Amino acid sequence: MTFEYVEPEDLDEASAALGADEDAVALAGGTAFTLLLRQGLIRPGRVVGLRRLAELRGISAHKGGLRIGALATHREIEMSPHVRALQPALAAAFAAIATIRIRNQATIGGNLAHADPSQDPPPILVALGATIEIAGPAGARRSVPVESFFIDYLSTVLSPGELILGVTVPPAAPKDRAVYHKFLPRSADDYATVSVAASVRLEADGRIAGCRIALGGAGPTPVRARRVEAAVIGRVPTAELIRDAADLVRDEIDPIDDARGSVRYKREMAAVWVRRALTELVA
Amino acid sequence: MALTTRVIRLTVNGHAYERTIRNDRLLVDLLRDDLDLVGTKVGCEIGVCGLCAVLVNGVVLSACLLPAVALDGSTIETVEGLAGPDGQLSPVQRAFIRHGALQCGICTPGQVVTATALLRERPDATADEIRDWMMGSLCRCTGYEGIFDAIASLAADGQAR
Amino acid sequence: MKLQHRFAVPASRDRVWATFKDLPVVAACVPGVDELVRLDADRYSGRFGAGVGPIHLSLEGEVGLEILDDAAGRALLRANGTDRRLGGGVRALVTLSVDPGEAGGTDVVIDSDVQVLGRIGELGQPIMKRKADEIMRAFASRLAERLA
Predict the structure, then answer these.
(1) Enclosing domain of residue A103
(2) B77 and B11 assigned to the same domain
(3) pLDDT in tens, A133-186
(4) CA dist C141 to C8, C26, C146, Å?
């Protein structure tokens, strides 16, 4: 049984097409969609192709902030002069995804809506304080911080009829630094055993004024390591402070035993890589 | 009752095609089974091996991950379109032969298509760029050196065009 | 896939056991169970739905009480369901045990042997176990509410 396919010309049409049918799914790049379809895990009655929606395209900069359309491909983000100049860690995180062909096809909007906690974009977007703009029926609009967007494995706050418009990344201050580490000890698939995205804001005296840390592959959704953050904010970062703070991440995450590692291994590696990320950022 | 097929139009290797397809038809199956263009190979079927690499509107993609219904109006290039009208192999194809970049040949169409896309975008591609682009094109036979050398030789003297 | 879940219910062992013998009541505590229809004294047909994001499992089948040991406080349930939409199904053998617990409450142990047939298995055991844990937690809490 195959599906009906529609290509709406504007957002309201798209929203209506998605909302009218509880079996409708949106098609952005199509990587996750095709995999789920071929695995037989989804049987959509209707597929709403988004490719005609010009409002979903483009990457722009404004006063140091970035605005990335939902249909921007991973490759476009990786190569964007705006992204590379303003948020190099974001460009690097997108460059770490899969292969050039996947990056040419997959989109940031589709990635977020798919909500697999092992994906690369969510942790770095959380670490950079990004927000997701959502379009709903009859012109409705709302914004949700990335970290509040995910509810569970493959589940987001999107209601029927809603779709992602784009992602906004706030401007970085001059002393802001960010990094993304993808710990990938195996090559059988491209999802990290655990990944760590971290951003810090340093004072003139070297104290950590702000810190955001998010992990991928560490639970059913990206995990914000708030206890680790609280342990370093306001402090002068010494090796000992960082090590003790990083150790706190072990109990903040909720990974599962799978082919990418045991729960114990993932907890250990999360601490190792949080420590490495922080050490690098304060150096 | 919902319509589950569509008419799509594609230009493939310079030829215009119009076909009625099921909405869940993948591009790789359309190319191989409906258009008899079997140069594009089926490998992993999850987009990671590179065997099914094709150019869609100039962009290298995995045909096994593309619902054809979303490509109406697109321009596609496959390995069959690389050689000249008189059968003369492209610079990339000739370089692959010169540098022993193939053995069994199953990955070769995907390698050559991806390399072609790379050198079009980056005629003087660096070693890092070559590796970054080509790391997703797996080969079980050659050990990759010949493939790398073939592409690097073209990048070095800008002969890719 | 073998699963075990344990939880305590703040009600007497006899009350908990009596509840477990009443299949429709037990079914009402399982999130996703729907349209339970009695076939005979120990068998019911029904529907069960669960989802992981865009992936929806929709089973139709039967559940039957096979063994009921009042003295030992053990029950054996067998459930079979098929998913006609995705193709596949689930077969489960579930052992329920009740024992007196702390402070006049009851310790419940549920051992499940679940076979997942067809496409749903592609999700992988870790995801399915997590989902099963979630369903069991909800079951335990609804059961406690009902018995309170």
Answers:
(1) 54-169
(2) yes
(3) 999 999 999 999 999 999 999 999 999 999 999 999 999 998 899 999 999 998
(4) 10, 12, 9
Name every residue in C having a CB less than 8 A away from some CB of A: 52-55, 85-87, 118-120, 122-124, 126-127, 129-130
Residues A21, A82, single domain; the answer is no
> Which residues contact residue C14 at a Cβ distance below 8 angstroms, ignoring those fewer than 6 apart?
none
Q: Among A142, A107, A147, which Cα is nearest to A126's?
A: A147
Query: B140: domain CATH number?
Result: 1.10.150.120
* CA C83 from centroid of its chain's CA atoms: 17
Is A201 in the same domain as A163? no
Residue B38 structural domain:
5-81
Q: Among A66, A71, A73, A77, which residue's Cα sits nearest to residue A14?
A: A71
CB distance B114–A7 less than 8 Å? no
Which chain A residue shows the shortest CA-CA distance from C87?
A40
CATH class of C2-147: alpha beta
Together in a domain, B66 and B117: no
Q: How many CA atoms lie within 13 A of A216 on its CB side?
A: 28
Residues A223 and A247 occupy one common structural domain: yes
Tell me the CATH number at A24.
Answer: 3.30.43.10
Find chains touching chain B: ≥3 CB pairs under 8 Å. Answer: A
What is the number of structural domains in chain B? 2
pLDDT in tens, chain C (148 residues): 899 999 999 899 999 999 888 888 888 999 999 888 999 988 999 999 998 888 988 999 999 999 999 999 999 999 999 998 888 899 999 999 999 998 889 999 999 999 998 888 888 888 888 889 999 999 989 988 888 7
Best of A97, A100, A184 to substitute, by most chain B Cβ atoms within 10 angstroms, is A100
Give the residue from chain B lying closest to A188, CA to CA.
B48
